[in-house]
Structures are given as structure tokens and as C-alpha cells.
Amino acid sequence: MADFDRGALVTGWSFKPSSVSFHKLSALLTLALLIFAFSFGNDAFFTVNNGLTVLLQTSVIGLLGIGMTLVIITGGIDLSVGSVLALSGVMTGLSIKAGVPVAPAMAIGVVTGAVCGLVNGFVITKMRITPFVATLGMMLIARGLALQLTGAAPISRLGEAFGLLGNGSLFRIVEKTGGIFPKVVFAGIPYPAILLAVAVVGAAYLLNRRQSGRHIYATGSNEEAARLSGVLVDRTKIFAYTLSGAMAGLAGNVLMSRLVTVQPNEGVMYELDAIAAAVIGGASLMGGVGNISGTMIGAFIIGVLRNGLNMAGVSAFIQQIVIGVIVILAVYVDQVRNRR
Amino acid sequence: MTTPLVEMKDMCISFGGVHAVDHVSVDLHPGEVVGLLGHNGAGKSTLIKILSGAYKADSGQILIEGKEVHIHSPRDARHHNIETIYQTLALADNLDAASNLFLGRELTSSLGFVDDDAMEAETRKIMGRLNPNFKKFHAPVKALSGGQRQSVAIARAVYFNAKILIMDEPTAALGVHETQMVAELIQELKKQGLGIFLISHDIHDVFQLCDRLAVMKNGQLVGTAKTSDVTDDDVLGMIILGKCPPGAVPGPGAIAEEAASG
């Protein structure tokens, strides 16, 4: 491994700049390059308001990416997050329609997501089904449930309060002009972005500073070694999948709240965006490698690309091609570096 | 004689009809090194993994200091101060030496934070004793050499005040100098009153380090003997033919005529 490490040895630096941080650095550089390039292409790109828009748009992938990172570090994968996101939103919507106030209804949605994750964890550890297959099954089950419960029809008229989480913002400054549309001085920090920031800090703290985080890395590094060292491997995995489900539930609420409508067919293929974000950020599907900040950079690379290409008038189809190429390049760069 | 530190009585375990360990009884006294010998697949590693909690025996009894214990997981084994150095080392490749040393029992601050600084300081202390040349405290263990990895695994086993130490081929990946280091360590631990099970293929190692030896063949115990009572050739005969020499106590796996005369 790592020419980098050997280089560090020779020059007597500390070993901190490991392959992980190297990857993060290159991802960060890519992100900076993208922002730089798009800023030249369009004056409206590098503005506070557009920055906030990107934040808002990225928050859903970001939330899913956090859960996905935990799961990927254990050496697994969670293909169900897109569907779980929809099911969670549906549960929240149905609860509100049944008369539950918004906040507890959203909690029901998040718990629904966590339960889906818990089931994933049990199927994987107790029934010994590979994560790919187990979560593929959950992907179909959750999507089917969401569609069945709603008859595939969107749930609308959920009230203004439901839209607050997705559309509200902190420190919004509005100037009354007397006209119909007040002048917005500062659009405010969107609640989803704040939620994302809190989730990022929480997950990074969990991974780096808690025993369970250490055990997540150990499980993905060498499952047998972790078990022999007294790590409760099954419990660690169930924990990771449950958190991933809960994050999907949270993301579902944010997304549906933004639309102020519950769409049971929302979130198709989101799991792939989340995986892409984690992989661009340096997580290894072999397990044991990855971190939250890397995934966030990955999520923002995807978010900035979408936003910038949209503003440049590039079609959604081309965007997919570009993101696909970037995912492959990110992994390739990492491999070439590790092979040397 | 004193109460044995460990007594494994009549242990049996089978995997899909194969009797990997078949009515094997061994014991270990404080300050004693017992060598476990046998061909690959003779069942020595399996026997030892029962004691370290990696496998659960189908039947048999484990006594520690005369008291029967039930070991269902590596955690249980550690609870009884049994530490194991596995042949595969059982290290998490992407974590550094300190994280591996404390894996499963991380030091935490009062708020439940993982205390990396304290763990590193402790790791530096013990590594300073075991392998003073070890400097790569921040590298993931996959970046370490075989000998360095081995010393991390050994440090993990001896750090936590083990009473019973299991070493599965501890010198297989080591050079001459490092092997000598392990030999010295074993002598030192012996003096401290630890009991050590040493699995080895190297008969010279066994004669140099062990007080007694137990030979297994096809999952059965051929016999046990004091190293001073038998010769190299006797032991080879036990391993290869299952023939129990006069100086040894035959077990159920000794070939028929010997068992009859013994």
C-alpha cells in the first residue's frame, strides 16, 4: 500500500496523511475545480442564493449518504434507502391524514425507516443473507408497501406545517416593499441544510469518537478478527443498517416536506446517488474504509454538478452520463494510487 | 499436585460429521508451557478455539482453577483471563496498532469518548518493551511487516493481564531475531506464572520452550509427555504414526497395540 506512507516515513512526517485523506484531498480539489469552472460559465452560479439552493438540493443525498457510509464501512451495502425514503414519507403523510400532529407524524416516518433498517440488519446477520440481496428485497418490499398503502396516488393537502421542514429557513431576512412580493435580502439557511449539518456532526462523532464507531470500522476491516476480539459483530451491523434506515426516513420527510406532498414513487434510484457519494468520497465497498466528510464532499460534487449543469442548460440525461464517469474515475484514481 | 489452571475434559466437536476434536482431554498448570503438536487438520487449532471461545464444543467440560466454566464467545474467554494469539493474527487491517490492541475493549473517557491518546500511550509503553524498533503507531496495520503485525498481536494478548495464553504458531511469520524475542517473552511470562498453550509445527521450538507436549492425530489425543521424557524421534512417531513411546501417557488416539499395552 501507499507510496504515500513510505514517503511519509522517509521525510519523517507523521503518518496522518494516509490514503484516506489523500483521496479526500483529491475529491475536495475536484469539487473546487467544478465550482471554479461553473462560476466562469454562469454569473448566477457563484452567489449566496445559489449556494443555498445547492445546500438544499444536496441535503437529501447527504442524509442518505451518511447512513450509506456507515453501512459501506461495515462491508455491506444498502440498496433499500430510496424505497425506504418513500415508505417513510407515506407513513408520515398517512399519519397526518389520520389526525396526528406534524412533529409526531414525522417521528413515525423516521421510526418506520429505522424499522426497515432493523429488518435489513436481522435478515443479514441472523438469516445470513448477503447485504446486496437482503436490501434488494427490502427495496422491493418498501416500495411495494408505499404504493399499496397509497394506491400509488400522491397524498396532498397536508397543511402548511408539513412544508416547514423542507421549505423553512433560519435567519431569513425579508424587506417589506409594499408590493405583492416582498424583497428577499437573505434567503436564510434552509432547515434541511441545518439538519444535514447536525447529522454530519453526529455521525462523524459516532464514527471517530465512540466505541461503536470503532467497531464499525473493525467489522468492515476484518469481520473474523473483530469477532475474535470480542466485538459484537452482528449487533454492530444491525446498528449500522438501522441508522441507515432512520437516515432514509429523515431524508424522506425532508423531501416530501419540500414538495408539501407525499409521493409514493419518489426516491427511485436515490440509493445509487448515495452510494456514488460515498464512493466518490473514498469509501471502499470492500469495507473498513470511508468517512463522513469524504461522503459529504462526494454528495456536494454530485449536487454541484447537477446544479451547474442545469444552469448551463445541459440535459438531465447528459448529467447522468457525467456523474457515471466521475464515479468510475474516482474509484480508478484510488486504485491506481493503491496499486503503485 | 496443584490444581491445574485449565482442564479440558473429554472435549468433542464435529463439523458436518467430521470429528474435528474427538474426546480430547488436556490440562495446563500455572507457569507451564504445554506444546500442542500434530499434522495440519489434526484438530489442535480447533481444540484451542474452543478454549478461546471461537467455537462452541458439542460436549466436554472446561475447568479453570478447578471450577467449571462455560465459554460461549471470545468475550467469555477474556472474562476468564484467557488471551489468544491466532495464527491469522486476527487484526483489523485498516485500524492502527492502538485500535487493534484495544479492539473490543477500547479505553473511553468519562463521557464515553474513545480515548485515542491514552490508548496510544499504553500501546507505546508495551511496544517499547516487546519490540523497541516499532515506530509506526499511526499506520494501519496492513502497512506493517509480518513481524510488526505479530508483535501487535502479541502485545494485545499480554497487555490485559492474561492468566492463560494461547499461542497458535506464534513464530510462523517471524525471522530468527524475532523468534528469539518471542522465546524470551515466553520464558518471562512463564516466570510470572502464566500457563501457555503453544501450537507449533517446529519440534525444536517445542523442545526448547515447552515443559510438556500433547500430540493430536485425526482429532484424537495420541498422548502427552514431559519433554524431558521423550526424544525428537518419539515425538515424530507420535505425530506421524500415532505411536505412543514408553515415556508418554497414551491417549485414546494412540494406535491399538500401544493403547493395549499402555
Could you describe the 3D structure shown?
The complex is a heterodimer of chains A (340) and B (262). Chain A is globular, with a radius of gyration of 21 Å. In chain A, helix 7 packs across helix 11 and helix 12 crosses helix 13 (292-311). Chain A is mostly helical. Chain A has a single domain (17-339), classed as Orthogonal Bundle (ABC transporter involved in vitamin B12 uptake, BtuC). Chain A is built from 14 helices and four strands. In chain A, a hairpin with a 7-residue loop joins strand 2 and strand 3. A two-stranded antiparallel sheet of chain A has the order 1-4. A two-stranded antiparallel ribbon of chain A has the order 2-3. Chain B is of the alpha/beta class and 262 residues long. Chain B has a domain at 73-197: 3-Layer(aba) Sandwich (Rossmann fold), CATH 3.40.50.300. Helix content of chain B is 33%, strand content 24%. Chain B has helices at 44-51, 74-79, 97-101, 116-130, 146-159, 176-191, 203-209, 232-240, 256-261; strands at residues 6-15, 18-28, 33-37, 59-64, 67-69, 82-85, 164-168, 195-199, 212-217, 220-226, 249-250. Chain B has a seven-stranded mixed beta sheet, sandwiched between helices. The two termini of chain B are 23 Å apart. At the A-B interface, helix 9 and helix 10 of A face helix 2 of B.
